[in-house]
Design brief:
Largest sheet: 5 strands, antiparallel
Strand order of the largest sheet: 2-6-5-4-7
Oligomer: single chain
Function: Hydrolyzes RNA 2',3'-cyclic phosphodiester to an RNA 2'-phosphomonoester.
Structural class: alpha+beta
CATH architecture: Alpha-Beta Complex
Keywords: Hydrolase, Ligase
Family: Belongs to the 2H phosphoesterase superfamily. ThpR family.
GO molecular function, one term: RNA 2',3'-cyclic 3'-phosphodiesterase activity
CATH superfamily: Cyclic phosphodiesterase
Radius of gyration: 17 Å
Distance between the termini: 49 Å
Pfam families: LigT_PEase
Shape: globular
């Protein structure tokens, strides 16, 4: 069964900056961190997981019915799940576009619930994963988060969201886009 998720791809400016940032951050800790790779970096709107192949056409149809305007997004600020003292995930937040991203995620939840896919149990928190901590080192991670927060990220416009298939390999996940769902064009008033 294919492993699926829905998300927003990031522009090249973000991907290019990620590699340098994670190399720099990795020098600030002795912990074992699985840093996000530029080629797979994205903002997850909904993780579907292992999905029966026969359900994919209905998922695509439900997602295609979602109407949303293009909106700006800009990364900024950092955090950790569950917190900076016991982190499992290090992330970047959004200083712009968080509300619109959450609205789009709710629309996706509504569309997929209508075809029998359960809602997420945790509330949606828009974020870009910087890394997952495999083996924590003692100490406070706030200095690393503060260092990551110093990186400046330009705003970009979200033109579409994507249904991806994720294949796990020993070298990391390989993400293949299955379908893109464009934002609607807003007509100027006459």
């Amino acid at each position: 069964m294919p492993r699926l998720f829905i998300g927003i791809g990031l522009p090249d400016t973000y991907r290019q900056s990620l590699n340098a940032l994670t190399k720099w951050l990795s020098k600030l800790t002795d912990a074992s961190v699985n840093w996000s790779r530029p080629d797979t970096w994205h903002l997850t709107l909904k993780f579907l997981g292992e999905t029966e192949e026969a359900r994919i056409p209905a998922i695509r149809e439900a997602l295609a019915a979602i109407h949303f305007p293009a909106f700006p997004v800009q990364a900024g600020g950092t955090g950790a799940f569950p917190d900076a003292k016991r982190p499992k995930v290090l992330w970047l937040g959004l200083v712009q576009g968080g509300e619109q991203t959450a609205t789009l995620a709710r629309s996706i939840e509504d569309a997929l619930t209508a075809i029998g896919i359960p809602r997420e149990k945790k509330p949606f928190r828009p974020h870009l994963t910087l890394g997952r901590i495999r083996k924590p080192a003692p100490g406070d991670w706030q200095p690393i988060l503060d260092a990551a927060a110093a990186q400046e990220w330009p705003p970009f416009t979200v033109p579409h969201f994507t249904l991806w298939q994720s294949v796990l390999t020993p070298e990391g996940a390989i993400h293949t886009p299955l379908a893109a769902f464009p934002a609607q064009q807003v007509q100027p008033p006459l």
